[in-house]
Amino acid sequence: GQLEKGGYPHFMLKEIFEQPDCIHDCMRGRINVDADNVVLSAVIDNKDRLLNAKRFIIVACGTSWHAGLIGKQLIESFCRIPVEVEYASEFRYRDPVINEQDVVIAISQSGETADTLAAVELAKSRGAFIYGICNAIGSSIPRATHTGSYIHVGPEIGVASTKAFTGQVTVLAMLALTLAKEKGTIDEQYYLSVVRELNQIPEKMKEVLKLNDKLAELSKTFTYAHNFIYLGRGYSYPVALEGALKLKEISYIHAEGYPAAEMKHGPIALIDAEMPVVVIATQNALYEKVLSNIQEIKARKGRVIAFVTKGDTVISQIADCSIELPETIECLNPLITTVPLQLLAYHIAVCKGMDVDQPRNLAKSVTVE
Ligand code: G6P
């Protein structure tokens, strides 16, 4: 059955490898066969309410909150509506300013996280329109929302969330595209290129998964580490946060994700020859700036593990190790770059002999405060 490990040693690895199929399932019936149009029916059905929103507020916890940070960038850039991203636990207790013109997006894999559910109830009581992005069908959060879209990635068993994250980002991209087209805020050619590229993501993820052996090998050299820094900018900043979270959850190595440009305001003080620094340095508008961040780390003898776009010849000269990833459009890059970071965390934890599916102190779904 679906709940077995299917030949994989852990659910987490199985779920990482399922991602190409999951993203395919997530897009099924939403992107048309010609890959030139995407429709999330919940967006169309609630068009009036969504098109008139003055603001979106995304509430979530943990990994789902990281997906929310990517959602913010997608919705702001495609739809030109301001988006705030809040930890559900903070939002619910600070008497937030919220009204009938707000749309709240609640993101939750389990659909049962107590803080996210409470944030939904609060926002609903103030008249906001609530859109859920969940995985578990019929769970509490989808039942409490006005509408929503399931991510359809199948049951996630590993405590560390993997396929739910990429499913959430995929739904957020489809939501932003559907809404932007209705609003007329997105350039037609650009819209087409994003939809086509989205359709290509499962194939590109398969390519990334071929790096598994290489990442397993690399991981052996990091079992000594007590700390890790993860850096990224723009769409890669939430990916850095997510990469760091995966590592700390299952390997118990302290890891911090940071926006690369903020490094000079603190974390740079931590860098010495013992400090591994994972940098998401794929080709994008901020490539040159990330390159200079890498030079700053190398000048302080940090060990740089760089994730670059295939064919990169510059960073591979400077980084201690560089891993080439397939090229994609900047706004969808998280769907590619997250996967090797999941694998890196997984293999480091396995090398350390940790129970990756059941990490200490953590629960798959947190139904109490
Ligand atoms: C727990 C899990 C995380 C998850 C978070 C939010 O902490 O261990 O993996 O990201 O809850 O869960 P949700 O089901 O609301 O997405």
Automatic annotation (TrEMBL):
The active site is at K364 (for fru-6p isomerization activity). It is found in: Cytoplasm. It is an enzyme of class 2 (transferase). Its EC number is 2.6.1.16. Residues 46-185, 218-359 form the SIS domain. GO terms for cellular component: cytosol. One of its GO terms (molecular function) is carbohydrate derivative binding. It comes from the Bacteria. Signal peptide: none annotated. Keywords: Aminotransferase, Cytoplasm, Glutamine amidotransferase, Repeat, Transferase. It catalyses: D-fructose 6-phosphate + L-glutamine = D-glucosamine 6-phosphate + L-glutamate. One of its GO terms (biological process) is fructose 6-phosphate metabolic process. Homodimer. Catalyzes the first step in hexosamine metabolism, converting fructose-6P into glucosamine-6P using glutamine as a nitrogen source. This is Glutamine--fructose-6-phosphate aminotransferase [isomerizing]. The chain holds residues 246 to 614 of 614 of the full protein.
